[in-house]
Batch of 3 targets.
Target 1
Amino acid sequence: MSLSGLHDRRQTASSCTALSTLVVCFLALGWLPQLGLADTYDIGVYLFKDASCLFFADEFLLLDNGCYANIWASNSTKAYKMNIVFFNSPQRIDMREYSDSCHTLAMPKRTVTTGTDRCSAFHGSMYAQFDIRFRSNTCKGQLCSNLAIAVQTFYSASFCAGPAYSIFRYPVQGECLRALNGTQNLLASSDDSNITLKDFGGSDKCETKTKDVRLQMFSITNKQCYPLYSTQAPRSFGWRVERNVPYAAASDAPRSRPGMSAFAVLLIAGIALFPTCHSEAKHW
């Protein structure tokens, strides 16, 4: 064999090997992100009655950027939001308080830091410690979130077709949320087939203790499309319940890694695409 022919065969084999590797990498990159499509983080709150965080009062989860009613000091502010702003340790969360349904700031935002060694003012006379919870089916350990949410999606077209016009997310464990003219809560049925929405018009605490409160109840079918406007967008909307069930607590690993069988499938797929390349390599 001539030196030029030998050089050509080496160059072909090298190119094919590189191309096969590149294809396998693209296959893997196209598949791996599917593991974490619905992964997100929620905020864990440990509520206390004192400034030293010694006398425990309650524990609950907050949806990041959810608009909650200030049920502890409604005479001071009407609503609050919490947003995770720094995920590395020490993690930080911004808190904002509003005089309405999370549109008008009542005071400058303040930032709290997670950790059991910190005791931060919450609302009214309440104090709290915070952490960040990973919400995913692949989560393991104590810092996993089981928060269920309802996703309300509006569509430009009828019959819930086409791209979304707007999307809103709400927790569905009966949390008291701030609404335009009062408060409301949402509760999913045990099988997630139905969502019950209670609107407390004129109430700051999702209560009906006074005669001025106007209670309205709505029954919403999960994954059903509802018509809206006929001549303008949005023309339809629907609700769906999203509920991740974390693995049993075994470790604090945030997510599982793909098994060797998955990588084998990807490798075989890459090899099968280039039989000519392998033939060249064999004869060389």
Target 2
Amino acid sequence: MAHLLPTTVVGSYPQPDWLIDRAALIGQGPVRVRAQKLWRVADEFLQTAQDDATILAIRDMERAGIDIITDGEIRRESYSNHLATALDGIDPERPGHVVNRSGVGQIPVPLVVGKIKRKRPVEVRDVEFLRRNTDRTIKITLPGPFTLTQQAENAFYKDEAELAMDYAAAVNEEIRDLKRAGADVVQLDEPWLQARPEKAERYGVAAINRALDGIAGPTALHLCFGYAYVARNKPSGYSFLPQLAASKVGQISIEAAQSNADLSSLKPLAGKDIILGVVDLDNPRIESPQEIAARIWHGLDFVASERLILAPDCGMKYMPRDIAFGKLRAMADGAAIVRREIGG
């Protein structure tokens, strides 16, 4: 990552059809509780199959020319449930229910019945496996404390902010172990900051800062409007973004291609690196490198080149693998075009 405009992914990459029931995965939407029935492989062979599929994702990202890679979140049923269901304080048998992100229905979520604590490392093996299988800069993602709080039914804490701070303490312990295991960048996924801005104003940044307390090295935070396959008419402005200037996080990741987001909202974040979504995942057409280069140049109108990192919009997990790979390669080629133009 020794050049301008490094490329990365937000987190996920398509899981193979032989590993997971993709029709069921897409049909039921992002899950908040465990969904073991999605896996096509028997339990005794599942870890090995997930390892094999993770290597495929790593090699795809390398071949596409991506600088900062992840494990593709191949072992996860969703971005959040892997960690959320592994903590103490969650009822292991009964789910809770909350209103979904769009505010139009109830979804099953973890039910908090005791004090939230981390009882064991959750993603350390994932980082160790990724580190062994690539020499590139690596990033690992995990759900942030605000989003974990919104995706749980609270039947224990008197105050939701108190629940968020205990989630933050558990996330902090996990991040420390992930850094020790070799993660170059740890990213908190906090999409519900955008969906619940009033609550985010009250305790979102405080919880994020607690999760990052004492963490050395690069950290990132991602927020978005929702996955392309379910969120079509996205707004151009973020309801919670300038407030992150007060956070300890070093990199702010936003989607911008599908929504044609108003990038002037990034001005208050001048002290942060920006991971900018420049690949539209709502359109299956693979953009040309020149199209992506134009989006990058637009981003450079608002973010200094030394602070800009490039990514697709989020939700690549739900795309066909050949299209996802083509879009990543086009992004890498588009970044190369702009680097040459800057150099010239």
Target 3
Amino acid sequence: MIILEKIMELKRPFISAASGLVEIDGKFFVIADDENFIGIYDLETQSGVSVDIFNESLPAEKSLRKKNKRDFEALVHLPKQKQVLLVPSGSTINRERGALISEAGVFQKEFSFHIIFSELRKHFPEINIEGGVVVDEQLWLFQRGNGLQNLNGLIKLNLADFLANKVVQPEIVLIDLGAVQGTNLTFTDATKADKNILFLAVAENSLSTYDDGSVMGSILGIMGRNGDVICTTPLATTSKPEGLCYSSSKKCFYLVTDDDNRQYSSILLRGNLPAEWMTILIS
């Protein structure tokens, strides 16, 4: 089991439902599933700035906010393009609007996921995209199988065609992650880690992509560049980890939490990988 160290509470700007995480030049980019901005945080000042994505106001009341939110669920660093992609879940028709910002944190343009989500609905009756990572010339999206169908999936797309809004034929691999206390583990994020991929998965006691449930446990895993799950280990947290990034220089990982409660801020946590994992990551 990996012990996690608390690094920062995401209070300035305030985020309670962190869902995606990217680290660029020592700055932590954090997206939330119920906000229309991205927070960019500095560890030294324990604070950050917010960058507006959509000029829309969301209701304060919980059920209305949930109904109207854009449900950003992942951040993907695009190194060659020097951009960061904001990925919506697609769990409802209202949740198909993404965006691109620069590495400097400047909003560039809205990006529609309608074309790819229309294609994915042919394969997944309940879309819920929760993670993404660039591998060579492909964009990998991670489908969270927390609905009735329990379909965890790895979706591989040609990145250039995707960014050009072309119709792409996805390569789909269904993945069984096992269960914790009888509750299926489902993807919540992924990140590039040296030559392989790290991913998060959570066992959340809910049979819906829309409704929240109790967290029964969570894991960190390594996935190979062919999409196979190499190994996993539990995380020592009762919170729901939803955003993940990896530091190649420090050989550690960071994650952010979402406790589905706007009374509490999300937390940025740090963890060290098991010693035996380091050989796997660089192999």
